[in-house]
Amino acid sequence: MRKKIVAGNWKMNKQMEEGLKLTFAIKETNKNFPEELEVVLAPPFIHLYAMEELLKNQPNFFLGAQNCHEEESGAYTGEVSAAMLASVGVDYVIIGHSERRHYFNETDTHVANKLQQAIANDLNPILCVGEHLAIRNDKKHFEYVQQQIENTLFSFTADLMQDLVIAYEPVWAIGTGHNATPEQAQEMHQHIRQILQDQYSKSFANNLTILYGGSCKPSNAPDLFQQPDIDGGLIGGASLSADDFSAIIQSF
Ligand code: PGA
User: How far is Cα 128 from Cα 132, in angstroms, rounded to an integer?
Assistant: First the structure.
């Protein structure tokens, strides 16, 4: 089902106490918002269990992880599986974030395997795609994102991907303060929806939730979220402040 989602990716920020305070503040500030809007908080792994307690019985709030391992279990020192995430009440998992691809050498093959794990464990995947600046300057961004989607999704049937969310995050916009304009984001989101329509069906594409990410903040969220194919945001820096994140939530 197509939803409206504002997801906060805390990355490697916030000690436990700070994270709990932030969660509490976001929860208190956002009591009355539309039923169809979901707020996802994706803290570091170590906070998940404690945050689950805080978010219990909060119908609009969901817990997200920032990554999972591509295997079910085994001798992978330091890693966390999708099944473990599910066992502590995680609902969403971000997969293929550009920082994972860049710093941890994740390829589309790893991303596809992680999607498989998320699906097998009933987690809602948030698949990140997006081009680097050089690719956009070469006017190859539509092809590039199409390739990322083909490589990571096309081995799955539509019925396995009912809970899929895609986040379009142009790498040049992440953490730079330079967001894509609403027009640039809209045309890419429309392109992504078209790719899914061509491969699966019109209803699959229409039901898909597509988020924008990359320097999304209170000042630009209203214009971005007004675009017909933008269903919300994946927020990094601005999700670390309760005031900014709440203002983004209230942009809908
Ligand atoms: P940003 O990060 O909002 O700080 O640009 C977005 C993201 O990486 O998901």
Answer: 13
8 beta partners: 41, 235
Task: Return the DSSP state at 239.
Answer: G
Mean pLDDT score of the chain, rounded to an integer?
97
Q: What are 181's two structure tokens?
A: 């304009």
Q: Is 175 in the pocket of ligand 1 (CB under 6 A)?
A: yes
How far is ligand 1, taken at its centre, from the CA of residue 199, in Å? 29
Amino acid at 220: N
Instruction: Please state, in angstroms and rounded to a whole number, the distance separating the CA atoms of residues 34 and 27.
Output: 14
* pLDDT tens per residue across span 189-209: 999 999 999 999 999 999 999
Question: Annotated catalytic, 69?
Answer: no
Q: What are phi and psi of 178, to 5 degrees?
A: -105, 95
In a mutational test of the pocket of ligand 1, which residue from 5, 169, 176, 224 has the highest number of ligand atoms less than 8 Å from its CB? 169
Q: Which domains does the chain have, with CATH numbers?
A: 140-230 (3.20.20.70)
Residues in the chain: 252
Give me the sign of the Cα torsion angle 136, 140, 142, 147. negative
